[in-house]
Amino acid sequence: MISSPTTFPTNLRTLPSVDRRPSVHVGWRRRHRNPDTCAYPTKKQATAESTEDDNYGGVAPYATNAPFVSALMAFAERDAAYFCFPGHNGGKAAPAMLSQLFGPDVFTYDSTPLPWIGNLFSSEGPLTAAQKLAAEVFGSSETWFLVGGSTCGVMASIMATCSPGDFLVLPRNAHISATHAMVLSGAIPKYITPEYSSLWDVAGGVTPSQVETAIEELKEVGKRAAAVLITSPTYQGICCKIDEITKLCHSHGVPVIVDEAHGAHFKFHPRLPMTALEQGADLVVQSTHKVLSSLSQSSMLHMSGHRVDRERVRRCLEALQSTSSSYLLLASLDAARAQLSENPGAILGKAMEMADLARLQIGRIPGLSILDASCFSSDFPDMDPLRVTVGVSRLGLTETCSCQTKKQAAAESAEDGGYGGADPYATNAPFVSALMALAELDPACFQFPGHNRGKAAPAMLSQLIGPDVFTYDLAPIPRIGNLSSSKGPISDAQKLAAELFGSSETWFLVGGASCGVMASIMATCSPGDFLVLPRNAHISATHAMVLSGAIPKYITPEYSSLWDVAGGVTPSQVETAIEELKEGGKRAAAVLITSPTYQGICCKIDETTKLCHSHGVPVIVDEAHGAHFKFHPRLPMTALEQGADLVVQSTHKVLSSLSQSSMLHMSGHRVDRERVRRCLEALQSTSSSYLLLASFDAARAQLSENPGAILGKAMEMADLARLQIGRIPGLSILDASSFSSDFPNMDPLRVTVGVSRLGLTGFKVNELLCEEHGVIPQFEGMRSVTLVFNWGTSMEHTERLITALSHLSTRFLDENRSQNQVGSGAITPFAGFRRELSPREAFFAKKRKVNIGESLGEICGELICTMPPGIPVLNPGEVITREALDYLQDARNKGAVIMGAADPRLSSMLVCSE
């Protein structure tokens, strides 16, 4: 039992000094706390040690050329008490079947984005350093890591070059992501028909003359090409004359995008074709997992030169990527790049020797033939020597044979309980079972990903997350399917999730809750439709309005200046918004509610849904922070139980799936199911990670057992922490009484601690807790920190948290008693906002950069927020006010990270031109 605060030790020496950490890999130097103070290294001390340890901590020499991997290793060596996402808590609460499948190390490195490591939106730190090293290796002026596959890169490239009504020149055999990008950007296609070989049923590339003809045909009717997209190499490895095409396009002032998803390896052997970057392309998308060795769904976008607006590319990527990007995928990109810095030529040379041998021998087999450039009349300069396409039509294999094979496979599958002979514990997890059955085979793999089940995995990555992961990181295969499959183990796993969570249909999301929010809004709102939503909605809602063309009708939530925290919205506020639209001759197409908020504040969803349905308006609930609500009687009712139509949940936040994995649930028939499905297809990767998908299935199976008992223990610890922390002088606990509105519930697993009476900001308290006490909160604000309890939270860590906060009280309360509390409470983030343009209009409008002092009264051209939680202070299309600038400057001065701004220092801003 924890002693009362009055008897708390003022010296942390009394904390247990036993090293309870799991063993680390050979060669790692452990970073222990100071034995005299039990404190973790301070920032200055960590910086000094970091310099000695090659910048990111004491890691094995092989990782010194991989800044992100090194930072992740150094972080994992700390015996931190996690009060943050993900819910598996470093593996302590990971589903048993998933730990047995992947090994325990995966969970150690699957972390929430951490301030000192950063995320995809960071402007500095190890992740930025890793991207800069990638740019050097691949020969770009800038490189961005992608956790949504090359699909994300193609879409961002088209959106960055084409505004609504612009023409995009592209081959008719471009990847579906190009079509989705045109749907989202409003670009109009000018198709080029590639040469097609009916003998092979294969399309080739496009020629420079075809591109020139397309550009000239547009000019003849008074139009111009905004960009040209080329697919090179094609799936079969056919390359186009990119150098001639880029010279031609640049002579017309047109930028060139190359979908080089299948050619990320070209730069690393003299026999391989020249890369698109070497041939002058402006934007190049590469799937780093296809032939190279990163994990599935990880890719890169490269930029060269200045023909494309870098800031617009960045804004497009922010709109398309998850704010909870997977550290596993990011680490794999860093490790794959480091591997390429060694001796890739020798490795690729051996692969080419084997491909040459196969090509020669297969070509001699009666009835078989090999695709080469002579199969086309067009002059295609190169073919990828690592692609071997075998013609089989002369063997007379028909669809009938295929059907017989399918019947045989189905019979075998039935004998094996549906998906093969998997371990009994996985029988309630169809996707995991299928993956295990597949792994039991020893096939010769001539498919993606390039690590080939771990045989070519980067050594540092294999040592980091263990070798077993690569066995299950597979390209989508017919026997298992992908997210678009209408039947099979993924579909079955989603149906089981729907049963458990109480929906009529559930979709797995590998792009985080952001993807679910965006798909929900796009599925309910067409261009010009009005969306009713709270002003503190997640940035993904703004991005969805950019992509869908919806127009916001904002509700201002109650804001507590004492806490610098916004609450939820009330049914009466929603009704007022709907009625105001009606009075103006408009109607709401949908209502979006955020419940619970980051701090766990819940809205009256039942009343709101009844009200909205009486007006014929569907309700979307961003329940990202409430996926666990259904699994204990003390928890609030779920949004599905309260009648919501579409509900987005982050399965990784408190539950135990891997980061970046979420679910979208649907109930009833008010929303068009097929439109939801199409929106998800437009936003999700076609190379979806089997690792993330397996974690959904395993987490759902884990919840089917006895979640109430486990969550009950977590709530007991949260209750104890709330009671003890509330007694510590200078600290306070956020509860419903902090707001005048009647919010019915708060998540008992969220504990928000007010720290302003210590004379400290939440940012400073977060820093002290992390660096000196090994306690990691989930969220820090100007006046508080928010802690997340989950079923991996231990009593030892809860004691450490309480002791650490008591220590901070003793240390700072008297010292700062005579000083004013942090913050005046007079500056609010939502004061006086006014919209002049829709988010979509502002996003695609021309921009100019102005000094911050000259921005007042201008129309904001970018989305600017503090991170976390990712709630906009300024949206694109809103008038820049003094209140907004003061809040942003105040937040930045106190330690907040500014996200979305082209200039994170806020010395300048992008505004919409006249």
Structure description:
The protein is α/β, with parallel strands linked by helices. Among the domains are: 40-78 and 104-339 and 446-465, Type I PLP-dependent aspartate aminotransferase-like (Major domain) (Aspartate Aminotransferase, domain 2, 3-Layer(aba) Sandwich); 489-707, Type I PLP-dependent aspartate aminotransferase-like (Major domain) (Aspartate Aminotransferase, domain 2, 3-Layer(aba) Sandwich), CATH 3.40.640.10; 839-912, Orn/Lys/Arg decarboxylase, C-terminal domain (Ornithine Decarboxylase, Chain A, domain 4), CATH 3.90.100. The protein is 36% helix and 13% strand. The chain is built from 28 helices and 31 strands. A seven-stranded mixed β-sheet has the order 2-10-9-8-7-3-4, with helices on both faces. The chain has a seven-stranded mixed β-sheet with strand order 13-21-20-19-18-14-15, sandwiched between helices. Strands 22-23-26-25 form a four-stranded antiparallel β-sheet. A hairpin with a 3-residue loop joins strand 28 (864-867) and strand 29. Helix 20 (571-583) runs parallel beside helix 21 and helix 25 (762-773) packs across helix 26. The chain is globular, with a radius of gyration of 28 Å. The termini are far apart. The relative contact order is 0.11.
